[in-house]
Structure formats: structure tokens, C-alpha cells
Amino acid sequence: MRDETDYSVEEQLSTWMDEELGADESRFLLRRLERDSTLRDRFERYHLIGNAIRNNLPPQIQVDFSKCVAQRLANENLKYVTRSWRGVGMGIAASLAITLTAAIILINRPITTSPTAFSPPPEIVTTSTANNVSPSLTTVSERPRPDRRIDRFLARHNELLVRTGEGGMVPYVRVADYSLENNTDEP
Amino acid sequence: MGKQYTDQELVERVQKGDKAAFDLLVRKYQHKVIKLISRYVRDQSEVHDVAQEAFIKAYRALANFRGESAFYTWLYRIAINSAKNYLLSRGRQPVYTESEVTYDDDDFSPISQQADTDTPENILLGDEVKNVVAQAIDHLPEDLRTAIILRELEGMSYDEIAQTMDCPVGTVRSRLFRAREFVDNELEKLAGK
């Protein structure tokens, strides 16, 4: 049985085009293709042959089309900025951790009864007695007063992430610093 | 290993900054993209410019390509939009609506197919190439011709071709390579004219 090394690189190219070349050989061939323009020209002609057989050719074929595209890319000096996925991942993970922490703190805060500017409108609550159900109009709860310390922490964290280029909070989260009339929560 | 595997591999390399990988994608899909655009843009002298623009846009947008669709489908979308934008910029309406354009419409006859004998040196006529390839295929030995027809027209895998032709997969691989080499030699004669 022939080893892959026994096949010419041109034959490997033909096989790779048909998606029939092994993974290791494909990687080797790709590295070769990237530095061998003659081999890339052959790759292009093989595809031309296939398209011709399938009657899938344009009216005119520009033989140096790919070179023109490459030249335009070079002229525009387009540099592919790859995201630092590690940085983005860390930023997202940190943002989620902060958000979760803030949510836990807010949930565990005692519910206050004093109305604030952010109170939801009164809701109709259905209460049941032993024999019947009668609706009653009750203010269920008011939104807990925002914790100013959390707000400042979130704002500083978001600012730090933006400065380090790792991205701030997820776009739809707005970090607002509430101005409260009563500053009794100051640390 | 499906068709998308190679494309996916190349796309990932491009996303890591490998321009040579993008060059391979251009070489692979240029004919299909140009043919698609030529269904919108009648002026053949403009078709290649619009197609180049489509590939440039694809390169810029590839960072956001997440593989939810096939690369080929995604590229086609960009090509169609490029053609439409070109027509709008010229104050023209697209000749065909998108639903009228199919990807493999073999019956389509381009309105402005030029049979100009004074074509520039870097231009080959599609019909001329097709004829050369067809004649070369006709001159192939039967086993090579059968193999390349089954592969290119029927889209069979090597295993399927091997079963059909009752030969080992390695023989299929060799036959396809030799068939392509033979046709390629004929094409080089055409390009050298």
C-alpha cells in the first residue's frame, strides 16, 4: 500500500480538492500551498476544469483575477485584526460575575416600604380566604433602593475593562450612578 | 470529509490573518461568483470589478463569519448585494430578481456574451475554455474519462466511484489526477495562445 509520501504533491492537491485527503496531509499541503504560487495556479486550473465540465463558467474569465484581488488587499493594507478571544472571554466572564454578585446582593436586601421615584404602580393582588376569593388592591412592594456602592463598583469595573481594551459590560447593560437624596448608604 | 470542511479550514486560517488561505478561497469560487454577478451586471467589463469588490467585502467581513451557513452561501449573498449596489449606484434596477436567479442555471444565456476576437490577453472566453475542456475529456482513455465525469458531474465520493468502477480507491485517486493533468495540459496550450 502506498504511503502518502509516495504521492506527488500535485496528486495530493487533486485529492485534497475532492475532500479525500487525510487531515495530516491536508495540513502539510496547505502549508505548501501558502508558499507555492505555482501550486496555487494549478489548484485554480483544477477548479476551472471542474466548472467547465459542469458548464458553470462565466462569459469571460480573467486569468489574473485572484492576483488582482490580492493586490487590492495589499494596497489597502487590510490587516486582519483578530480578536483576542481570551481577553474577550475574560471580560465577559468578569462582567457576568459582577452582574451576578450585584443581583445576589440586591435580592438579599430587605424590601423597603418607603416609596421611591422608581416604585412600580400598584398591582391588583388576588387573595383567597377559606370560602371565597376576593381581590384586594395592595401595593405589593417597591423596588429596593439601589445600592450606591454597587453602582460605583460597576462603573469603575466597566471603565477599567474599556481602558484595558478587553471590552466593557455587555452592550445592553447601562451602568448608571443613581443620585439619591439621602446619602445614608455612604460607606 | 464534506465540502464544507476544506472551506471551514481555510476560513479559520483567514480569521487568524492568513491571506494566502483567502487567496485559495478566491481561486476556488471566483468563476461561480463572476458568473453570478454577470447575471445582474450586463457590462462584462464591469463584472470583474464588481466581483473583486465582492471578495474584498468578504475578506473584511470574514471576522464576523460564524459558520452558521456554508461559506459558499454567505459569499453568494455578498456577491448579490455587491451587484445590486453597483446597479443602484448607476441608477439602474437589477435585471433579475433574486428569486429568478438560481445558482446552477445551466440554461441561462448571458445577454452580453461577447465573442470578441480582440479580447485582452488576460481574458479567456468561457465558451472557448468549455470547448477545450470538452474536447480534452473526449480524448481521455475511457477509465480516466469515466472517473472524472463521475466525480465532477455526479459528485460521487472516491468510495462510490471505486464501487462503480470496481477498482480500489487508490486507483480512483490516480485516475482523477491523471485526467486533470491531461486536461490541464490542453488548457495551458489555450492560455499560451
Q: Which key phrases capture this entry?
A:
heterodimer; A: 187 residues; mainly alpha; 2 domains; two-stranded antiparallel sheet; 6 helices; disordered C terminus; B: 193 residues; Arc Repressor Mutant, subunit A; 8 helices; 65% helix
Question: Care to give the gist of this entry?
Answer:
The complex is a heterodimer of chains A (187) and B (193). In chain A, 48% of the residues lie in helices and 8% in strands.
Number of helices of chain B: 8
Q: What top-tier CATH class of the largest domain in chain B fits best?
A: Mainly Alpha
Order of helices and strands of chain B: HHHHEHHHH
The CATH architecture of the largest domain in chain B: Orthogonal Bundle
Rg of chain B from C-alpha positions?
A: 19 Å
Spatial gap, N to C terminus of chain B = 39 Å
- Helix content range of chain A: 40-55%
**Domains of chain A, number:** 2
Write a structural description.
The complex is a heterodimer of chains A (187) and B (193). Chain A is mainly α and 187 residues long. Chain A folds into two domains: 7-75, Arc Repressor Mutant, subunit A (Orthogonal Bundle), CATH 1.10.10.880; 85-163, no CATH class. Helices cover 48% and strands 8% of the residues of chain A. The longest helix of chain A is centred in the middle third of the chain and has 24 residues, at 85-108. The model of chain A is unreliable at 115-141 and 178-187 (pLDDT under 50). Chain B folds into two domains: 3-100, RNA polymerase sigma factor, region 2, helix turn helix motif (Rna Polymerase Sigma Factor, Chain: A); 126-191, Arc Repressor Mutant, subunit A, CATH 1.10.10. In chain B, helix 6 packs across helix 8. Chain B has helices at 3-15, 19-38, 44-61, 71-89, 126-138, 142-152, 158-165, 169-191, and one strand at residues 123-125. The longest helix of chain B is centred in the C-terminal third of the chain and has 23 residues, at 169-191. Chain B has 193 residues and is mostly helical. Strand 1 of chain A pairs antiparallel with strand 1 (123-125) of chain B.
